[in-house]
TrEMBL record:
It comes from the Bacteria. This is alpha-L-rhamnosidase. Residues 185-353 form the Bacterial alpha-L-rhamnosidase N-terminal domain. Residues 468-814 form the Alpha-L-rhamnosidase six-hairpin glycosidase domain. It is an enzyme of class 3 (hydrolase). Its EC number is 3.2.1.40. It comes from Thermoflexibacter ruber.
Length: 926
């Protein structure tokens, strides 16, 4: 007989005991289990992991890299209280090279690696988690990586090679190199290390290596040469392989500077290439450039940066970069040498960026066939074309048309800016240059008899691949276009070095232009590594004997071209600007001796602390009105300018010394600064505070650098404002006065005058070129005159970023985003917008290492709304126009309830932590 299954029921007295027991274990699990981590991963997370300011960089020769991350949280007032980093040779983090443990710190920017010594050519992975002040801990971030380069010269096994045949020294066609090799095993990883004396483009098994252009970029070649590192694992195959490279003259031996100058760094091009291969079984092999390579020429018949490139497709040896090619007719190679330092590329490389299609194809009154791409850009034009063998197409490049609508190239000076393509006659063919670039909006087409169709042409912008960080927009369309022009002026002139212009026979790293624009550059794009790299060249090219800084860097103008006030001060101004923008003390440390040497040059060349000798550019390209009657816009005394920059650089050096803990130096330069200002007042100022030069620039510099006693500054500012008004609210400043003009007016209570200058639409002004159709910043205020004629052709670039320095004022004053010196790099943020009745809306966004900052104001129906966003792990002091602390309300909370709130000078000033805020007030604009 089967028994029915019975449900076992405990005695009734056991039920409460079981309930208590289960509750106890549940509470114990809450305490001991990592549920907090799970919950908090939704409250706080880590993003934007950077190693040496780069995302997953390949090829860092930095032995102690620094790590940066940003926090994301929906909560307000979030601060990091601790972090933990772990690094490993594998993504699973099992092979640890560094574990910090929990570190009590709010530092999330530039945290230095302190693990076991790093190895050359090794990929490392790292991740981080953080704790915040609200009791949350994040999950571990997604692993990021960095790949090391070579740490010692002995890591290089490759040999420098050059062609083994007699070169055509007149046209200098591009040399080609190749080598076959066989891999008998399956490849797990492979890394290529490549550089050249000249420019190179490397290929592996028929495919281009990497997406950089104009490599190895431009440095002070006589002392140092960059190499690039590429992951080429996917380009290799088991069995036969071919590595190849073509070289171009570039900056190394091409035409550079003025007076038909060439071969500045050398006459012969050379290649250095090494591939490090690791097989799946763990064994390794190295492929190097050596005597076993072959050399020849190919389709690139001629290539110069200024003059362009000629490509004859009939000359291309088909398959030259693949294993099956017969190279029996190629010559061998000879060994070459290089005496300078080889270093890995630290900054972002030049890459292809935006593309543009023709917006108009037309014939000029002269009958020229012209294409308009609608944007003045830097790069080249790609062509897709069909025809017979030997047919050609010639492209000339220009920035503007003349007043009659004809193609205008007189401002290019000797630069030809010409690309020529000769067809091989095999269906549709594709052409683009390799070792040149052009500055242009228009192209003129010659030597082509077929129909010109828009789909045949694509303009490609080239510039250093710096991440876009800032954006500004407003209710004023012309200001928005000005912002666009500022950004594109930077794009076109930031090709590894900050060039002055990208089209004529110059394209040099003028130091004066760079220092004027550097702070603006940091708002538009991530300029940290770009300037860190270039500043090292500034120090290298600086005269060892006396500390004079060249006019251009890299210096291709010679030893005597140095020491001009406002130009050489790039050595002090830019390091400080980078420190403010990015919070990087290392830049100050790296440049400190250079900064000291430049201040030392000025001090040695002064008499009783008065620097009044030597050559100076002065307030370059200032407006020259017809003022013979009163002289109020006369040329600013160049030695007055020099004395002002002498003081400014000394002040920055004293502040730098203090930041670096060099207190003795800080005191020394503070004393020197006082003596410099005293000498200025004795030489250039009357007892009542009038300056010997009555120009806008004279008063701007004296006020901006605090050269006058405090009690005499208001009357000097009034003179400046009256000068501006006397010209009908027009500026008369040049390269040195313009960057500070609106800042000084704002500082001394003339905001309305500053806005009048910004919004002025007639010449000279920022908006005059905009009204004339500019899409970049012009070199001159009147590059094109109101009657359509041109300024002096020999000095008239239409893509010249210096006057774009007004962008700094737009960000820091119009929308008021700034960083405090006590919390650089936007750790401590200032939001202090300045409103005007001439605008109803303005908004800036800025991506910082901590995250996005937003400052927006909108005036409507007598009320103003301020939308502000502060990233996690930062704090901000907000200063908004108001009638009282209770006038502004945020989410039904009066500002008077905010931390340290106070009312001063018509503004509500208070502190906030991270978060999004929307303040509404009835103050409007006053």
């Amino acid at each position: 007989m089967k028994m029915k299954p019975q449900l076992y029921l405990p005695s009734l007295w056991l039920v409460p005991l079981l309930r208590v027991t289960l509750l106890f274990f549940f509470l114990l699990l809450l305490v001991l289990s990592p549920t907090k981590t799970y919950a908090q991963s939704k409250s706080i997370s880590v993003t934007n992991l950077l190693c040496e300011n780069l995302s997953n960089p390949i090829g860092l020769d930095v032995k102690t890299p620094r790590f940066t991350w940003a926090l994301i949280s929906p909560n307000r007032n979030v601060m990091q209280t601790a972090y933990e980093i772990r690094a490993s040779k594998d993504m699973s983090m099992k092979t640890a090279v560094w574990t910090t443990g929990k570190v009590a710190s709010d530092q999330s920017v530039l945290v230095e690696y302190k693990g076991t010594p790093l190895e050359s050519n090794q990929r490392y992975y790292w991740q981080v988690r953080v704790w915040d002040n609200l009791g949350n801990v994040s999950a571990w971030s997604t692993p990021a990586f960095w790949h090391t380069a070579f740490f010692t010269p002995s890591d290089w096994k490759a040999k420098w090679i050059k062609v083994g045949f007699d070169e055509d020294t007149l046209n200098r066609p591009s040399p080609y190199f190749r080598r076959n090799f066989n891999l008998k095993k399956q490849v797990r990883s492979a890394t290529a290390f490549i550089t050249a004396q000249g420019l190179y483009e490397a290929r592996l098994n028929g495919k281009r290596i990497g997406d950089y252009y104009l490599t190895p970029f431009w440095t002070a070649y006589q002392k140092r040469l960059q190499y690039q590192v590429y992951d080429v694992t996917n380009l290799l195959q088991q069995g036969d392989n071919t590595i190849g490279a073509a070289l171009g003259s570039g900056w190394f031996r091409g035409y550079i500077g003025f007076q038909n100058n060439k071969n500045f760094y050398g006459k012969e091009l050379a290649l250095l290439l090494q591939i490090e291969i690791t097989y799946t079984d763990g064994s390794k092999e190295t492929i190097i450039s050596d005597e076993n390579w072959k050399s020849s020429t190919g389709s690139i018949l001629y290539s110069e940066i200024y003059h362009g490139e000629t490509i004859d497709a009939r000359k291309e040896a088909k398959g030259w970069d693949t294993p099956n090619f017969n190279d029996s007719q190629w010559a061998g190679v000879r060994l070459a040498d290089y005496k300078g330092e080889l270093l890995a590329t630290y900054n972002e490389g030049i890459k292809k960026q935006e593309t543009f299609k023709p917006i108009k194809i037309f014939k000029t009154p002269k009958g020229e066939q012209v294409i308009d791409f609608g944007q003045n850009l830097v790069g080249w034009v790609q062509v897709k074309i069909s025809g017979k063998a030997g047919d050609k197409i010639t492209l000339y490049h220009a920035e503007v048309l003349d007043k009659d609508g004809n193609f205008y190239t007189e401002n290019l000076r000797p630069a030809k800016q010409k690309n020529e393509y000769i067809l091989k006659g095999e269906g549709e063919e594709f052409f683009e240059p390799h070792f040149t670039f052009q500055g242009f909006r228009y192209i003129k087409i010659e030597n082509f008899s077929g129909e010109i169709k828009p789909e045949m042409f694509t303009a490609v912008a080239l510039y250093s691949d710096m991440k876009k960080t800032g954006e500004f927009t407003s209710s004023h369309p012309l200001i928005n276009q000005l912002q666009h022009n500022i950004q594109w002026g930077q794009n076109g002139n930031f090709l590894d070095v900050p060039t002055d212009c990208p089209q004529r026979d110059e394209r040099l790293g003028w130091t004066g232009d760079a220092q004027a624009f550097a702070r603006t550059a940091t708002f538009n794009r991530q300029s940290h590594n770009f300037f860190a790299k270039w500043l090292k060249d500034v120090a290298i090219d600086q005269a060892e004997a006396n500390g004079a800084v060249p006019f251009v860097v890299p210096n291709v103008l010679g030893k005597g071209a140095s020491g001009s006030a406002g130009w050489a001060d790039a050595a002090t101004i830019i390091p400080w600007d980078m420190y403010l923008a990015y919070g990087d003390k290392q830049i100050l440390e790296n440049q400190y001796e250079s900064m000291k040497a430049w201040v030392g040059f000025m001090e040695k060349n002064s008499t009783n602390y008065l620097w009044n000798k030597g050559f100076h550019f002065g307030d370059w390209l200032f407006y020259r009105p017809n003022d013979d009657n009163d002289g109020r816009a006369a040329v600013t005394d160049k030695y007055l300018i020099a004395q002002c920059f002498f003081a400014n650089s000394t002040n920055l050096l004293a502040k730098t010394a203090k930041v670096l803990g060099k207190n003795e130096d800080a005191n020394k330069y503070a004393t020197l600064l006082k003596n410099i200002k005293d000498a200025f007042m004795k030489e250039y100022m009357t007892p009542s505070g009038r300056l010997v030069s009555s120009t806008q620039t004279a008063y701007v510099l004296a006020l901006n650098f605090d050269m006058l006693p405090e009690n005499l500054r208001p009357q000097a500012a009034e003179r400046l404002a009256e000068n501006v008004k006397s010209y009908g609210n027009h500026l008369t400043t040049g390269f040195l006065g313009t960057p500070y003009l609106c800042h000084v007016l704002t500082r001394f209570g003339y905001l309305d005058v500053a806005y009048d200058l910004l919004l002025q639409e007639t010449y000279p002004s920022w908006l005059y070129p905009v009204k004339m159709g500019a899409t970049t910043i012009w070199e001159r205020w009147d590059g094109i005159k109101p009657d359509g004629t041109f300024q002096t052709p020999s000095m008239n670039s239409f893509n010249h970023y210096a006057y774009g320095a007004i962008g700094d004022w737009i960000y820091r004053v119009v929308t008021g985003i700034d960083t405090e010196e006590s919390g650089v790099g936007y750790k401590k943020i200032t939001i202090k917008p300045h409103l005007t009745t001439k605008l109803t809306h303005a908004k800036s966004e800025l991506q910082t290492y901590y995250g996005k900052i937003v400052s927006e104001w909108k005036t409507e129906n007598g009320k103003t709304t301020f939308n502000i966003e502060i990233p996690a792990n930062t704090t901000a002091v907000i200063s908004l126009p108001a009638t009282s602390l209770d006038d502004l309300v945020e989410n039904n909370v009066k500002v008077s309830q905010f931390k340290n709130a106070k009312f001063e000078n018509g503004r509500a000033v208070f502190e906030v932590g991270s978060g999004k805020y929307s303040f509404v007030g009835g103050a409007g604009v006053r």
